[in-house]
Design brief:
This protein is α/β, with parallel strands linked by helices. The chain has helices spanning 4-20, 45-52, 56-70, 92-104, 137-152, 168-178, 184-191, 194-207, 209-223, 227-251, 270-279, 318-331, 346-358, 394-412, 418-438, 450-453, 461-476, 492-501, 504-514, 518-537, 546-569, and strands at residues 29-31, 40-42, 75-81, 85-90, 118-122, 156-160, 283-286, 289-298, 304-310, 336-342, 367-373, 376-377, 446-447. The protein folds into 4 domains: 4-90, Gyrase A, domain 2, CATH 3.30.1360; 118-162 and 266-376, 3-Layer(aba) Sandwich (Rossmann fold), CATH 3.40.50; 168-240, no CATH class; 394-569, Isoleucyl-tRNA Synthetase, Domain 1, CATH 1.10.730.10. Helices cover 53% and strands 12% of the residues. Strand 5 (118-122), helix 5 and strand 6 form a beta-alpha-beta unit. Helix 6 packs across helix 10.
Length: 578
């Protein structure tokens, strides 16, 4: 099902093709920047006028004449503006029809894709040797937003939580764990804080030669399938995952154990990857390591940059596992594979994708996309840490957010019951952390600031949640009034709000394509602002007649639905009152 923008773009593009005789025409329809420019604007005429070496305004007028002859239902008026823009004014009857359809069937408001795909989204990827820290926040919630959006549009989404569960570090951890085997209570106490457990094991590995030797032997026993070592490994993995699941539950993230894509899954395939690269004459030995050098990757002095796929000691790397994963996704007939991973891994993924294609592990039927994101910074302009310089545990940060939100809610609305305060604090606190992140362009770094994210002013979760709760409060006061039909948009503010509501599907479609959740946050913030202006100018409950009351209440109901759907796609729970 196409959004309004997509319908208009198709109609104007076809008209441009008919007028110009060119087959490849794109109307480039965008949302109008001001109401006086119409509801939408087609900016593509200049491009074809340049190809035809003719006056763009003349071409634009011919396109307008062609469209007017078709008398398309959505369009009320067309006009040529500037050097060749086409301003598109939609008919009120069409807008009311679309809005009432969305109001009565909210589940169908965001249409399904006409070409549904099978899409793998690789996100979160915690280190199972440690507890999740603040550095895992962005990848986890950006990825979760994207899978919600893609599923909403009818795509088949394969969640992939790619975790490291194999290698030397696990031999080290298992050896440390087995030494506590005789004391179950001590094991439980130690594993309760994975960060400390890992640090203790690493210190022994670095400073105790005998312990390091035992750790390496443990890896051999683990990889050979020794039952005792496999059991210890499974115990450690289980305990690690419990820590992750506690964070996912607090964040309301949709990942589960069924979505694990562990490195051990690819263990048997790694030698085959090396063999295949060798058979295609892509491998070069460099300082004992086996590498792939491609011409498009050069460093200083035009020196070729390697993608190392096997270390000099025979061990494998993330690159080898990633190549195996690409090949598996190709076999599983995935159409798009999205990797929601920090921007510092950009070169790594560029090389992996290029090598995968060069080696024939992936063809053009599989789109490989690195969804890069920046760093969460502290007020000092450095990556966000504790005062002692340690990584901030994600669970601790979320608990702190809920505590601060509870204090804020208790101050602003002391009349809430203790149970209500707890629920509101949970939604506001977690929502504030998620929204503060998702509202930023994912490729940029941003400064973590409690005061900003918990503010009830500006583009924040508390403001958005309050805007929704305020509309719900208005609707509760009119329980006996019919709110299922928007009858008219007589005032400018009514019409602007109606049009803004109907833009949600096109915003969602843009996120599904380009993977920038901040577009949704910006849209919802604009929608809330448009509603506030409507509320100030157009009386709702005190309107001059019953039909106007009903119509404006229905418009308020549509706005509440739109806000709720948008916030749900961000993974944020709405509140009926605050």
């Amino acid at each position: 099902m196409e959004s309004i923008k997509q319908q208009l773009n198709a109609a104007v593009s076809q008209a441009m093709a008919a007028i110009s005789g060119l087959s490849d025409c794109n109307a480039n329809v965008v949302t109008a920047s001001k109401p006086e420019f119409g509801d939408y604007q087609a900016n593509g005429v200049m491009a074809i006028a340049k190809q035809l070496r003719t006056n763009p305004r003349e071409i634009a007028q011919k396109v307008v004449d062609h469209l007017e002859a078709l008398a398309l239902a959505p369009i009320d008026k067309l006009e040529v503006a500037g050097p060749g823009f086409i301003n598109i004014h939609l008919s009120d009857s069409y807008l009311l029809s679309e809005a009432n359809s969305a109001l009565q069937k909210p589940d169908l408001f965001i249409g399904k894709s006409d070409s549904p795909q099978k899409i793998a989204v690789d996100y979160s990827s915690p280190n199972l040797a440690k507890e999740m820290h603040v550095g895992h926040l962005r990848g986890t919630i950006i990825g979760d937003c994207l899978v919600r959006v893609l599923e909403k549009m009818g795509h088949e989404v394969v969640r992939q939580n790619h975790v490291g569960d194999w290698g030397t570090q696990f031999g080290m951890l298992i050896t440390h764990l087995r030494e506590l085997e005789g004391d179950q209570n001590e094991q439980g106490t130690q594993l309760a804080d994975l960060e400390v457990f890992y640090r203790d094991a690493k210190e022994r590995f670095d400073n105790d030669a005998d312990f390091a030797t035992q750790s390496r032997l443990a890896v051999v026993k683990l990889q050979s399938g020794d039952p005792e070592y496999v059991a210890a490994w499974e115990q450690f993995i289980d305990e690690s995952l419990k820590h992750c699941e506690a964070v996912y539950e607090k964040l309301a993230v949709t990942l589960s154990r069924d979505d694990l894509d562990a490195e051990s899954r690819y263990n048997d395939d790694l030698p085959i990857i090396i063999s295949d690269l060798e058979s295609k004459e892509l491998l070069t030995e460099s300082d004992g390591a086996r590498c792939v050098f491609l011409e498009q990757f050069k460093g200083k002095d035009d020196e070729l940059l390697p993608l190392i796929v096997q270390k000099s000691d025979g061990g494998y790397l993330y690159s080898t596992t990633d190549l195996a994963a690409v090949r598996l996704r190709m076999r599983d007939q995935i159409h798009r594979s999205l990797y929601v991973v920090h921007a510092r891994q950009s070169l790594h993924f560029q090389q992996v994708f290029a090598v995968a294609r060069e080696a024939g592990f992936a063809d053009d039927s599989l789109s490989l996309e690195h969804i890069a994101y920046g760093t969460i910074m502290g007020s000092d302009g450095r990556p966000f840490k504790t005062r002692s310089g340690d990584s901030v545990k994600l669970e601790d940060l979320l608990d702190e957010a809920v505590k601060r939100a509870h204090d804020l809610v208790s101050e602003k609305n002391p009349e809430l019951t203790p149970e209500e305060k707890t629920r509101v604090a949970q939604s506001v606190g977690i929502g504030a952390v998620k929204y503060a992140d998702l509202s930023k362009n994912r490729t940029s770094d941003y400064v973590f600031d409690w005061n900003t994210m918990l503010s009830f002013e500006g583009n924040t979760a508390p403001y958005m949640l309050y805007a929704y709760a305020r509309i719900r409060s208005i609707l509760r006061k009119a329980t006996a009034v019919n709110t299922t039909m928007i009858a008219a948009v007589a005032e400018t503010e009514e019409r602007v709000l109606l049009v803004k509501n109907l833009q949600l599907p096109e915003v969602v479609a843009a996120i599904a394509k380009d993977c920038y959740p901040n577009q949704l946050c910006n849209y919802l913030y604009e929608l809330a602002g448009v509603f506030m202006r409507f509320y100030e100018v157009c009386p709702i409950l005190k309107a001059e007649d019953t039909s106007t009351v009903q119509s404006r209440l229905a418009l308020a109901q549509l706005t509440a639905q739109t806000l709720q759907q948008g916030l749900d796609l961000l993974g944020i729970e709405t509140l009926e009152k605050m």
